[in-house]
Amino acid sequence: MSSRSFWAVGSAVVAMAAAGAAAAHHGWSSYDADRVMRPTVAVLESHWGSPHGSLVVMLDQQRWDVVLAPVSRMQARGLVAGDIAVGQTVTVEGYPRRDGTREMRVERITAGGKTVELR
User: How many C-beta atoms surround the C-beta of residue 84 within 10 A?
Assistant: First the structure.
């Protein structure tokens, strides 16, 4: 195999792997939009970073992962890191995973005295 062919094949493999990872990460069909959840919960853990923000909360005595929007979108809509810091109380509105994993995709969040649309 020539050097040029090697790089072409390698580039194609990397591109396909990246596309697969992006599709898996943004597989919104894995969430049940027919089951809207609106709990008001205390923030146990908070991540303000890429590729999106996230929280860990306690709901019905179980830890739940909460998937938020990208930081740039949250900031543009008025949410700041302090609004979702550990110990803050927030209301999240979103959808649970279909497979029963304790994770929800959030459409809007009420925190810091304001409601912010995330999608």
Answer: 24
Model confidence at 13: pLDDT above 80: no
Rounded to an integer, what distance in angstroms lies between the CA atom of residue 96 and that of residue 60?
14
The per-residue pLDDT for 28 is 79
Q: Give the domain 31-117 fold.
A: OB fold (Dihydrolipoamide Acetyltransferase, E2P) (2.40.50)
Report the chain's C-alpha Rg in angstroms: 18
Q: Which of 95, 90, 89 is nearest to 109 (CA)?
A: 90
Q: Is the pTM of this model over 0.90?
A: no
**What tens digit of pLDDT does each residue of 64-116 get?**
999 999 999 999 999 999 999 999 999 999 999 999 999 999 999 999 999 99
Q: Please give the angle made by the CA atoms of 25, 30 and 33, to the nearest 5 degrees.
A: 125
> Each residue of 29-70: pLDDT tens digit?
999 999 999 999 999 999 999 999 999 999 999 999 999 999
The answer to whether the beta carbons of residues 44 and 66 sit under 8 Å apart is no
d(CA 70, CA 4): 37
